[in-house]
Structures are given as structure tokens and as C-alpha cells.
Amino acid sequence: MLQYVHVAMVTVISLILFLWMGIRVGSARQRHAVTAPATTGHPEFERHFRVQANTLEGLVLFLPSLWLFAIYVYEPIAAGLGLVWVIGRIMYMMSYVKDPAKRGRGFGIQALAMLVLLIGALGGVAWAMAGEFMSRG
């Protein structure tokens, strides 16, 4: 399993990022007196909440794509693309909380990285299936 150590580290980093976002939501909730279970209130709290929720939605696509790309294509490239996704997510978080209209660059960076991982995973799995089919001849 050491062959996937880089992707494993990117996975842990992405989960730490998500945890950090949750802490930021909690801080904004406390700072603006938005009591649980409310998910609306002060605009800054809502932006923190949306960043975390949107990241959770993205993790559902990102993590399987990251691992499938690593397994069926090439692990170092998967890890590099994973780091690009994390950096894009951080940029998205910082810009969205300050001014939602300026979230585009970070969103675009992470979306492109995720799309490459997803398409690469699809291609890698399809190639492996074709090879298996051809070997049965």
C-alpha cells in the first residue's frame, strides 16, 4: 500500500481542510450568534456555511476520482492534481467568504483538477476493462 502514500497524504490534507472549514463555520456561528440548528442568519455565517457544504458536495466526486486515477492511471499525477484541488478549494474559501462574486478563480482551479481526475479515472478504468476483455480473447 506504500505505492499510494502520496494520494493517501492528499486525502488526509483534504479532510483536514474540511475540518478547518467546519471550525470556521462554528466560529462564525458563535461570532454572529446563530444558534444551532439554524443554517441562516448573518451573511458572513451563511458564506462560511455554504463553503463547507459546497466542499462536502465536492468531496463526494473528488475522493473516488483521486483514488481511481491513482490506481488506474498514475499515482504521482493524481497526488499533484489532488494538491491543485486543495489549493483551489482554499482560494475558493477565502474569496467566497470575503466577496462571493470573486470566488470564480478558486472554484475554476478545483473544478478543472476534479474534472481531469474524473475523466482520467474513467479512461483508466475503461482501458483496464478493455485489456481484461482482450486478454480473454
What does this 3D model show about the protein?
The chain has four helices and no strands. It has 137 residues and is mainly alpha-helical. It has a single domain, classed as Membrane associated eicosanoid/glutathione metabolism-like domain (Four Helix Bundle (Hemerythrin (Met), subunit A), Up-down Bundle), CATH 1.20.120.550. Helix 2 packs antiparallel against helix 3. It is elongated and about 65 Å long. The model has no long low-confidence stretch (mean pLDDT 97).
How much of the sequence lies in strands comes to under 5%
Task: State the CATH architecture.
Answer: Up-down Bundle
Mean pLDDT: 97
Number of strands: 0
* Tally of separate domains: 1
- Major sheet summary line: none
CATH class: Mainly Alpha
The CATH topology annotation reads as Four Helix Bundle (Hemerythrin (Met), subunit A)
Please work out how many helical segments DSSP would assign: 4
Order of helical and strand elements: HHHH
Could you say which overall geometry the principal axes of the C-alpha atoms support? Answer: elongated
Structural class: mainly alpha
Residue share in helices?
A: over 70%
End-to-end separation in angstroms reads 31 Å
CATH superfamily membership, which one? Membrane associated eicosanoid/glutathione metabolism-like domain
Q: Report Rg.
A: 18 Å
Low-confidence stretches: none
